[in-house]
Design a protein that fits this description.
135 residues, alpha+beta, six-stranded antiparallel β-sheet, two-stranded antiparallel ribbon, 27% helix, globular
């Protein structure tokens, strides 16, 4: 019985000794951001998408929130593809572990997936004409 009490006391002293150190580490750590994902991809979870050349794409979910998926390498054909397949297996959730398949071209893997402001606004042809007239 005496050995159990000594072991318990030693354990409490050890825990007390390291408690301030763990508190200091927790104060210096940055909060981890929430992981970006789009659930229910095969059930209307994706509303729209737009290619960013061959390096990434913007994806809009059903709630009109935009995300940006950067790709591991250049995705040949993405810039002018009319349709793509989102591979969100096995959980039907689009996230940083997902990929896109371009029919006739191949598969492109996501390097990262994060919340975004969306694609840049398109410039209207009228704005180009007025800029040329002023210049």
């Amino acid at each position: 019985m005496n050995k159990i009490v000594k072991a318990a006391a030693a354990g409490l002293l050890t825990a007390a000794a390291f408690a301030p150190v763990s508190g200091v580490l927790a104060a210096n750590q940055q909060p981890t951001p929430a992981r970006a994902s789009i659930p229910f991809v095969n059930f209307g979870g994706i509303r729209d998408w737009q290619a960013d050349g061959d390096k990434g794409l913007w994806v809009e979910d059903a709630h009109r929130q935009w995300f940006y998926a950067s790709l591991v390498g250049p995705c040949v054909g993405l810039d002018f593809a009319y349709s793509i397949v989102f591979d969100a297996q096995p959980m039907d959730t689009l996230d940083r572990f997902s990929s896109v398949i371009l029919p006739g071209w191949g598969r492109c893997y996501f390097g990262s997936f994060s919340v975004s402001e969306g694609p840049p606004a398109k410039r209207s042809p009228d704005a180009d004409d007025s800029a040329a007239a002023q210049g």
